[in-house]
Amino acid sequence: MSLVVIGGVAAGLSAAARARRIDATLDIVVLEKGPVVSCGACGLPYFVEGRIAEAEQLIAHTPEYFRRERNIQVRTGACVTSISHARREVALESGERLRYERLVIATGARCDTSGIAGAGAPHVFTLHTLDDAQRMRRFLREKRPAAAVVIGGGYIGLEAADALRRNGLRVTVLERSANVLLRDDPPLTAAVREQLECHGVELRCGVEAREIAPGSVADVACGMVVIAAGFKPNVELASEAGVEIGRTGAIRTGEHMETNLSGVYAAGDCAEVTHVVTGRPVYIPLGTTANKTGRIAGANAAGKRERFGGVAGTSIVSVFGMGFAVTGLSAAQARAEGFSPAAARIEGYSRPGYFGGRPVTVELIADRATRRLLGGSVIGEDGAAGRIGVIAAALQSRMRVEDFEQLDLAYSPPFAPVWDPLLIAARQLLKEL
After folding, report:
1. Is 79 designated active site?
2. Options 3.40.50.1980, 3.30.420.10, 3.30.230.70, 3.30.390.30; which CATH number does 325-432 get?
């Protein structure tokens, strides 16, 4: 049986590798339109910053590795122009046609700059591919701009702002909504703003950048612009082939990552998934989700019947060393989804004070009717990732606040206080309930 995978980054290669482990007889071809595969895109801001010295450090594996070690044919520079499911074939830009019996679409997403005039200027960048990062780093070295504007206050935007400020630039972040990190959460936005301002970065919310003029954006003077907004799934190829697009704008899939076309699967940043709290389709493009959905798609394309349980949108970003982590719904988002939310926000310490404990802020949100946890956030320099992971596990388990407050969390002065901030927040939330 032949399996064709369109896309050779996280989701596509996870699908191909998983399918190979299940069926050693499969003929697997991965088609990647770009020049590299298996690239750690989440490391791009740190390459721009200079913390990662060489671009090659971000490439985990080469096409030769997959051919030699996995018996998977990975082709770069292979741009698919159409899919004919009736004939079970894909057409390439070169004119070549490839037959398939099973197909995985992992075409990813892009930063859509079409709504911003002047986005094609040489001092304007996106930060989505290795080539983007190399071009940006080269520009910083050669042109030495004094100031930059970052359009977008999501994860990539904040990481780009951090990287540019560490390169000595004056940085202004423009976010068109009232809040950052794609989360309706004013206290979280206030904390991000405070951290940015402490390190010389200005955050302006409620500002939509529609035009990039020479030397300025939205009346902010700059010699460099990074567009980190307008993330859009690459669904055109799938849609033209008859694959159904969901209400989020991404490819609609079921729990097996199969599309409405039998034998055609989708995974990664081009596909929507189910939210574990609301049970509704969502589009939350994250590297963790791409790898997981890719594995499920690959397994099922190889004949298994595995399911993907959904996402809570768990993520964390470092802003000048401070971790900002979220999962599930904010109080405002929960209200918009029809819940009756209660929230508790506390300030604690990551470890006992005598062992160098650092401040940590925890917020928990629950539904008043069912007392089920709906979401949370953790802010801190120490242990934010581990603590947000505990909340995410609770959301996945549909845990009630009473049960969460009784969790048997580890205690030892080098690692955590006897009463973890998570448990203190849960206790406070019980009072609110």
Report:
1. no
2. 3.30.390.30
